[in-house]
Amino acid sequence: MNLIGDMNSKKVLEKNYNIDYYLLGVVGVLLVLGILTLASVSASFSKEKFGNTTHFLFHQLLIGIIPGLIMGFIVFRLNLERFKRISHYLIAVAIGLMLAVFIPGLGIVSGGAPRWMNLGFATFQPSELLKISFIVYFSAWLINPAKREKFIKDPERIGKSLFDRIVNELRGLLPFLMILGLIFFLLLFQSDMSTLIVLASIAIVMYWVANTPFWHSLLIVLLSFVTGLGFIKFFPYRVNRIAVWLNSNIDPMGIGYQVKQITIAIGSGGIWGLGLGDSVQKFGFIPQTMADSIFAIYAEELGFIGSLGLIILYAFLFWRGYLIFKRSKDNFSKFLVMGISFWLCFQAFFNIGAMIGVVPLTGIPLPFISYGGSHIIVELVAVGLLLNISKNTKRC
Question: Minimal CA–CA distance to 186: which of 354, 330, 178?
């Protein structure tokens, strides 16, 4: 009995050891940095609107971080096969919620864009759920091309023409392109170009990892490009963003105001920063300081060293995800890990890149840092999936 008990204990220890504690640790550090930065940024707005300095901070904890941790733990405990089996239901629910924002009384229009749902006690942005649902669905779908490849290479089909092979591949690709086209169409009407960029980039990287035909990726790029042109045609203000990106001196008190103030904030941080809580630009000078522009305040208060440290944390997160990817036993897990790891880090670097002028401003949140319950809940669920997969990998 003792021997059996020792063996069981050893199995439990080995199973627990396989959890990527480094990944868990880096996400914990990012959450702490997000809480500290939000506490600094939101205090004045909270005091002005609610008469106390902690309203937005507590709201983030109660509506975002705590529910996200609970849901992330639940996902961590579930069998991954369940996600594979229900992947098409997940994407269907996400698309349904994307449609629901157009229902009067349920959808909320802010800044001219219908992107949010009114839940009564809080608002919810379905496009954030769409990101993780898309990755899970795409990971399950990408398993099928291997079967199609085996079918194409069957000896009975060796003599078939290239045209026949392309048609055969299109037969499997077309359903996915239809879903992708519907998603892009909904994003177009929600004026959500940032999510379009994220999803298109995820799709291309996951396709590349799955070693699928190159022309499939070209089709996704073409579809994304056409949708991007649609954004410019139907929402001309995006031309202004591109113009300001190309020349930051354009109309500094008008369309170039946000970029100018962000540059001032980051530049005034210097090497070491002004100190946590000592930002000047957070007092109404920069739009969306709690959300999309929070990195500018972070850089102002913690300087170049603090900003470099944040970038290293995101890079470390991707590296841990890559190690889990390399050690995953099945393709579904591999695709899922790569999709999630790339998504979180691409979104982080895209947000930071927009703040320092490398890419145009798009309104994309900084993972684990920006204010907003929708994105942080989904991001913590994604981390739960990564940790779930890490349980079944070799020791990292």
Answer: 178
Domain range enclosing 62: 18-391
Q: What are phi and psi of 253, to 5 degrees?
A: -105, 5
Domains held by the chain: number: 1
How confident is the model at residue 250, as a pLDDT?
75
Does residue 297 lie within any of the structural domains?
Answer: yes
Are 79 and 99 within 8 A, CB to CB?
A: no
In-domain check, residue 7: no
List CB contacts of 355: < 8 A, sequence separation 6 or more: 262, 266, 293, 295, 296, 299
**Structural domain includes residue 10:** no
Please say whether the beta carbons of 56 and 42 come within 8 A: yes
Distance between CA atoms of residues 271 and 239, nearest Å: 34
Query: What would the DSSP string read from start to end of 237-278?
Result: HHHHHHHHHH-TTS-TTTTTHHHHHHHHHHHHHTTT-S-TT-
Three-state SS for 82? helix
Strands 107-110 and 123-124: unpaired
List CB contacts of 148: < 8 A, sequence separation 6 or more.
Answer: 168, 169, 172
* CA distances to 5, 167, 350, 370 from 27, in Å: 34, 44, 18, 14
Residues near 32 by Cβ (< 8 Å), separated by ≥ 6? none
pTM: 0.87
Q: Does 368 map to a domain?
A: yes
Pick from 201, 86, 175, 173: which is nearest to 137 by CA?
Answer: 86
Instruction: Quote the pLDDT of residue 13.
Output: 40
Residue ranges, the chain, pLDDT below 50: 1-17, 146-159
User: What is the model's pLDDT at position 9?
Assistant: 43
- Cα distances from 290 to residues 41, 56, 124, 282, 371, in angstroms, run 6, 9, 17, 9, 5
Report the C-alpha gap between 375 and 388 in whole angstroms: 20
